[in-house]
TrEMBL record:
Protein name: Ca2+:H+ antiporter
Molecular-function annotations in GO: potassium:proton antiporter activity; sodium:proton antiporter activity
InterPro entries membership: Alkaline_pH_Ca-Antiporter, NaCa_Exmemb
Keywords: Membrane, Transmembrane, Transmembrane helix
Organism of origin: Amycolatopsis saalfeldensis
Residue ranges of every copy of the Sodium/calcium exchanger membrane region domain listed in the record: 37-188, 222-363
Compartments in which it is found: Membrane
A Pfam family matched in the record: Na_Ca_ex
One Gene Ontology cellular component: plasma membrane
Classification via PANTHER family: SODIUM-POTASSIUM/PROTON ANTIPORTER CHAA (PTHR37958), SODIUM-POTASSIUM_PROTON ANTIPORTER CHAA (PTHR37958:SF1)
Membrane topology of this protein: Multi-pass membrane protein
Length: 366
């Protein structure tokens, strides 16, 4: 007798995004009790794991660095939609929401995902090896975008407070799109080899020849399920936000800390995917995810917010405060020292994770 394979539509990786969307539709805009909050949290975790699975299927089909790019852009586009929705519904009191969310994403990706990837990659091998040309150019672009969009508004004089004038905001939006577009062109066309995994001698590693890539149909199905799962993850994170707000208030933390918690939830798929890649010895893929996500968070969010500001009421505060600027500067400096050699140990991973812990601590207790 021959064993019958289960239908792909009955696998948990297919059912989890669908169940998450149903849960989102049933809970959106409602006040939830303790039990529904716990159930939604479980469904959210399942959707995160399903998103990671489908992202890896797509990445295996299209290869690097396209796979990392797909996940980073998909998460960021949905995150931007959530930010704009919250700003439209929240009114003037959400003027700093875009800044807080983008900065949290940058710190989580450049310190959390990057540090975890280096730590996991160095767990079996004393030294992890990656491509300094690709990682260095990505970090340089992130630093330029962060300075133009998040630091300069605190020093310009056209508007009081940490705000851009409409003309300055338009320039920052155009500059962001140009920088992001140039980087994507470099990553995928002109210098694609800079963003491929390398071995201990610096030679580019090819895709795993022992595992056949999925069919085009399977990859397209996973791409669709990935987008569904990410929509559900972001939406359920918003549904959970009242419970998160209550917990934050009970702990005595500032209300802005809610954005940090939501950013941590939204970036979970990329974090797990990066850790999995590092565990397989492909640290460059992890760095592509970390730095690519930071870049997309700024390069796509700021232009979208600039367009939305036409009908948004209230001020748009993009400039970081002095504490945040210090954290950004030290992150860039340490990041440069990490990626320039093209080799890293557990120490570098630990340093970045401590910087993330400092960010979270100071966000909770400023």
């Amino acid at each position: 007798m021959t064993s019958r394979k289960s239908s792909p539509w009955l696998r948990w990786t297919t059912l989890a995004p669908a169940i998450a969307v149903v849960a989102l539709l049933l809970t959106w805009g409602r006040t939830l009790g303790t039990l529904p909050v716990v159930v939604v949290a479980v469904v959210l975790a399942a959707a995160v794991l399903a998103a990671v699975h489908h992202a890896e299927v797509v990445a295996h089909r299209v290869g690097e660095p396209f796979g990392s790019l797909v996940l980073a852009v998909a998460v960021t586009v949905i995150e931007v939609a959530l930010i704009i929705t919250l700003m439209v519904s929240g009114g003037p009191k959400t003027g700093s929401l875009a800044r807080d969310t983008v900065f949290a994403a940058v710190m989580i990706t450049c310190n959390g995902i990057l540090g975890l990837s280096l730590l996991v990659g160095a767990w079996r091998n004393p030294v992890t090896v990656f491509n300094a040309e690709g990682s260095g150019s990505a970090l340089g672009t992130v630093a330029a975008l962060a300075t133009l969009c998040l630091v300069l508004p605190s020093f310009t004089a056209a508007r009081p407070g940490p705000e851009f004038s409409p003309t300055q905001l338009g320039f920052a939006a155009i500059a962001s799109l140009i920088l992001y577009g140039m980087f994507v062109l470099t990553q995928t066309v002109r210098h694609r080899d800079f963003f491929l995994p390398v071995d201990a001698e610096g030679a580019v590693l090819e895709e795993d020849e022992h595992v056949a890539p999925p069919t085009t149909k399977a990859a397209l199905t996973s791409l669709g399920l990935l987008l569904v799962a990410l929509v559900a993850v972001v939406g359920l994170a918003k549904v959970e936000s009242p419970a998160i707000e209550s917990g934050v208030a009970a702990l005595g933390f500032p209300q802005s800390f809610v954005g940090v918690v939501i950013a941590l939830l939204v970036l979970l798929p990329e974090t797990i995917a990066a850790a999995n890649a590092a565990r397989r010895g492909r640290v460059q893929v992890s760095l592509n995810l970390a730095l690519g996500s930071a870049m997309a968070s700024i390069g796509l969010t700021i232009p979208a917010i600039a367009m939305a500001s036409i009908w948004l009421s209230g001020p748009l505060q993009l400039g970081l405060d002095p504490t945040q600027i210090v954290l950004l500067v030290i992150t860039v400096v340490v990041g440069v020292l990490t990626v320039v050699p093209g080799r890293a140990t557990r120490l570098q991973g630990g340093v970045h994770l401590v910087l993330l812990a400092a960010f979270v601590f100071l966000a909770a207790l400023p």
